[in-house]
């Protein structure tokens, strides 16, 4: 029996075409929660950037790809990037090549600089403008995620300087960098401990590369029809796209609603 559903936001609950949550998605999630199923957000976004969920009520939030998880006002898990890795990242930008980046703290998101890829992404997902803060100011702060704008071809060269971190992409122009050992699966584990829910009682639904760990971990892993092939291979079931009632199809297929 599925007792908890964990859902990505962009491309899963919210359409990239309309930037809104389809009405059928909202109806399906409300019905699942009415039936006693716990509903969780599982996103790479910061809590202040969760701006498109149409007033739905959720039982908990896995944010920053698992690095910061909370239920109501209770933080159930947090893990920041090692200080030495932040220092190495800043040094790389100063000495090798600049890296436009969001520096994500517990309470705010700042940028060290802007470029066309960052501005395009912010427009795509309707993010508010970030304060511009010199990267060096973050060396002695708790940074939970770096959202760094560089192509995949540069990833190996940059990440070799950050041994305490891993990188994951859900969009081609940037990568989310978090502390090693942290991913959305981490959030499912922590929520499971908090609520007493086992992996076999969980469903995870997503469309991006950062969703693969939770899709593989949950007893029922679902890929959206608009997901990449690697995501679909990790899933137990491939539903329709976010714009074609994908959430509703999946919940009906498994008898949740």
Topology:
Elements: E1 4-7, H1 23-34, E2 38-42, E3 60-63, E4 68-71, E5 74-78, H2 83-95, E6 101-104, E7 109-111, H3 116-124, E8 145-148, H4 155-159, E9 165-171, E10 174-179, H5 184-195, E11 202-206, H6 212-217, E12 220-223, H7 229-234, E13 237-238, H8 246-253
Parallel strand pairs: 1-2, 1-11, 2-3, 11-12, 12-13
Antiparallel strand pairs: 3-4, 4-5, 6-7, 6-8, 8-10, 9-10
What report would you give on this structure?
With 257 residues, the protein is of the alpha/beta class. It has 8 helices and 13 strands. The protein has helices at residues 23-34, 83-95, 116-124, 155-159, 184-195, 212-217, 229-234, 246-253, and strands at 4-7, 38-42, 60-63, 68-71, 74-78, 101-104, 109-111, 145-148, 165-171, 174-179, 202-206, 220-223, 237-238. The chain has an 8-stranded mixed β-sheet. α1 (23-34) packs parallel to α8 (246-253). The chain is globular.
